[in-house]
UniProtKB/TrEMBL annotation:
The keyword Oxidoreductase applies. Keywords: Amino-acid biosynthesis, Aromatic amino acid biosynthesis, NAD, Oxidoreductase, Tyrosine biosynthesis. It is an enzyme of class 1 (oxidoreductase). Pfam families: PDH_C, PDH_N. Its EC number is 1.3.1.12. It catalyses: prephenate + NAD(+) = 3-(4-hydroxyphenyl)pyruvate + CO2 + NADH. Residues 303-374 form the ACT domain. Belongs to the prephenate/arogenate dehydrogenase family. One of its GO terms (molecular function) is prephenate dehydrogenase (NAD+) activity. This is Prephenate dehydrogenase. GO terms for biological process: tyrosine biosynthetic process. Residues 18-295 form the Prephenate/arogenate dehydrogenase domain. The keyword Transmembrane does not apply.
Amino acid sequence: MTESTDTSVRTRAARTSGVVRVVGAGLLGSSIGHALGQLGVDVALADASPSQLRLAIDYGAGRAARDDDRPVLIVVAVPPDVIADVVERELRAFPDAVVTDVASVKLEPLHALRARGVDLTHYIGSHPMAGRERGGAIAARADLFVGRPWVVCRDHETPASDLALVEGLALDLGATPLEMTPEEHDRSVALVSHVPQLVASLLAARLVDAPDGSLRLTGQGLRDTTRIAASAPELWVQILGANAEPVVDVLGALADDLRVVSSALRAPDSPGARRAVADTIRRGNEGVERLPGKHGQNRRFETIVVMIDDTPGQLGRLFGELGELEVNVEDLRLEHSPGAQFGLAEISVVPSTVRHAVEGLEARGWKIASTTVD
């Protein structure tokens, strides 16, 4: 999948031209550099850490910025607690350039810049909804933003040409630009990003003192719900502190829900207890169904669970035979229990192809463990 994505990036004509200055050579900054570099864009990298800068350059994210650079676009990709300082510095140093940042919080830096009296005519806050559990230039990848939303926070003073530059950057990187106010953005990410990080971390923390025997029972569900708990604490302290109020609002509502479920389970035979638990699970079903699917559509897929032998090449053969059946795999999840001689490939497909896929795979000797349709 990555190969085809990278090829598509290389063959597209860039909307972005001239020098693009990227300040901050970590995961996001370096990934932007890799993607633009594949399009032939001149990427000038700057970073407060000389070693981080050299590493990003060695990995091909761009070249070192020079004093005589005249960037048309500047992307600030630094930690949240220094966003306002760096944006102010870049706006003053390059008054003819458009400056954007990719911080995950938009309102606090904007308030700080306005309080300092900075001319924000050529500043547009933005935020790509993309990332990885690992950070740094070594984890960067050109396809990091492909298919991801990229929020652009413009105001009534934003020149149309400046907006076009930032949205063009997002499109060049394969992302989907979405316009929001800073307030809308921060409330939204509190719900879909910041609180999920806390919930995953709190759940994963329960594992620290868990018996080894319990951990040997771990399945894909626990891995799915704790995956992002591997994120860097230092960065998240900054993010959560900068967006505390919306996060607390969501956490308060979540705490209320937890109290209802806890109360019901303390007396599961009491009137209404089972309904309270069932309603909680049902509301979760409804919430999941609202999540955007592939290509940003609110689209629900059906699932086929295929048993695969724990031998080399089996997954490749499964994908190859699904391709022969002209069945597109929308999503994939693998589960393999320690000590088992087989794994389970949970494949998401559009509903209209389920029966055809099942019949075709069974005819080729695959064992279907289950499907979400009868």
